[in-house]
Automatic annotation (TrEMBL):
<keyword id="KW-0029">Amino-acid transport</keyword>
<keyword id="KW-0813">Transport</keyword>
<dbReference type="InterPro" id="IPR027417">
    <property type="entry name" value="P-loop_NTPase"/>
</dbReference>
<dbReference type="GO" id="GO:0016887">
    <property type="term" value="F:ATP hydrolysis activity"/>
</dbReference>
<dbReference type="InterPro" id="IPR003593">
    <property type="entry name" value="AAA+_ATPase"/>
</dbReference>
<keyword id="KW-0547">Nucleotide-binding</keyword>
<protein>
    <submittedName>
        <fullName>High affinity branched-chain amino acid ABC transporter, ATP-binding protein</fullName>
    </submittedName>
</protein>
<dbReference type="InterPro" id="IPR003439">
    <property type="entry name" value="ABC_transporter-like_ATP-bd"/>
</dbReference>
<dbReference type="Pfam" id="PF00005">
    <property type="entry name" value="ABC_tran"/>
</dbReference>
<dbReference type="InterPro" id="IPR017871">
    <property type="entry name" value="ABC_transporter-like_CS"/>
</dbReference>
<keyword id="KW-0067">ATP-binding</keyword>
<dbReference type="GO" id="GO:0015658">
    <property type="term" value="F:branched-chain amino acid transmembrane transporter activity"/>
</dbReference>
<dbReference type="InterPro" id="IPR052156">
    <property type="entry name" value="BCAA_Transport_ATP-bd_LivF"/>
</dbReference>
<feature type="domain" description="ABC transporter">
    <location>
        <begin position="7"/>
        <end position="238"/>
    </location>
</feature>
<comment type="similarity">
    <text>Belongs to the ABC transporter superfamily.</text>
</comment>
<dbReference type="GO" id="GO:0005524">
    <property type="term" value="F:ATP binding"/>
</dbReference>
<dbReference type="GO" id="GO:0015807">
    <property type="term" value="P:L-amino acid transport"/>
</dbReference>
Length: 247
């Protein structure tokens, strides 16, 4: 059963128009795993999430999800398959209330399901229930980030792709957002997280995958790579002990 929820990425090549960014990504994510995707600026981390969510041009390779190749499908179809995406940056409707934002997030659902799914989200995020009539744009950055995660989990995905949730947040708000991600993970959700705050990412993730120049160059347990090693990689473009700079 568990194997069915694996996400198998094979030799994935993708980019924007003629621009190649992913140059043969291989990744196998078992169901329920919490994976942090890391790497230097421009490595292709966000592009990988966007590609999994059908937002880039696929040049080759497969994204096998529950026995089906979803590479090249439209985002809406991918959402329907149980993969949801929280993009980087503010992505709510600021002059709509929390409740209205959740209604917007439910636009692909049948009416009867919308209320049930909003209730599900309010159970998950009681803080949003209290603010249901508040305009999203009038909430704190942390609350808005929670709303954006809530909008993505409304349809009860199996996999949540989250891009840089800590950007612009205070340490306290970062703590709240990450606690919520951990809670979703504890409930069985598979999470792929792109996060510049490597300290936080390494604390919450079960596995670290490092990308460079659109390829996976390291894959292991967070405890097996130090912050110094990561810092070195981000600064120089090479892993400790690697002979030639490739940046
Ligand atoms: N919509 C786009 N059109 C064209 N090029 C893009 C687009 N989005 C990203 N890129 C380019 O793709 C490359 C990889 O970007 P991406 O955002 O995936 O990197 P990243 O590893 O997430 O980096 P960062 O940590 O800086 O966010 C960069 O050179 C970037 O300029």
């Amino acid at each position: 059963m568990e194997a069915k929820t694996n996400l198998l990425v094979r030799d994935l090549r993708a980019g924007y128009g003629n621009l190649d960014i992913l140059n043969g990504v291989d990744l196998d994510v078992p169901g329920g795993q919490f994976v942090a995707l890391m790497g230097p600026n421009g490595a292709g981390k966000s592009t990988l999430l966007k590609t999994l969510y059908g937002m880039t041009s696929i040049k080759g390779g497969n994204i096998d999800w529950r026995g089906k190749n979803i590479a090249g499908q439209k985002s809406r179809a991918i959402l329907g398959e149980g993969i949801s995406f929280v993009p980087q940056g503010r992505c709510n409707f600021p002059v709509m209330s929390v409740d209205e934002n959740l209604q917007m997030a439910a636009y692909t659902l049948r009416d009867a399901k919308v209320k049930a799914d909003r209730d599900y989200v309010y159970d998950l995020f009681p803080i949003l229930k209290k603010r249901r009539a508040t305009l999203a744009g009038n909430m704190s950055g942390g609350e808005q980030q929670l709303l954006e995660v809530a909008m993505a989990v409304l349809q009860r995905p199996k996999v949540l792709l989250v891009d840089e949730p800590s950007v612009g947040l205070s340490p306290a708000a970062i703590g709240i957002v990450f606690d919520e991600l951990l809670r979703l993970h504890a409930d069985g959700m598979t999470i792929l997280l792109v996060e510049q705050n490597t300290k936080k990412a390494m604390e919450v993730a079960q596995r670290a995958v490092i990308l460079r120049l659109g390829q996976v160059i390291w894959d292991g347990l967070p405890k097996d790579i130090t912050h110094d090693e990561l810092g070195e990689l981000f600064l120089t473009g090479k892993m400790r002990g690697e002979a030639d700079a490739v940046h």
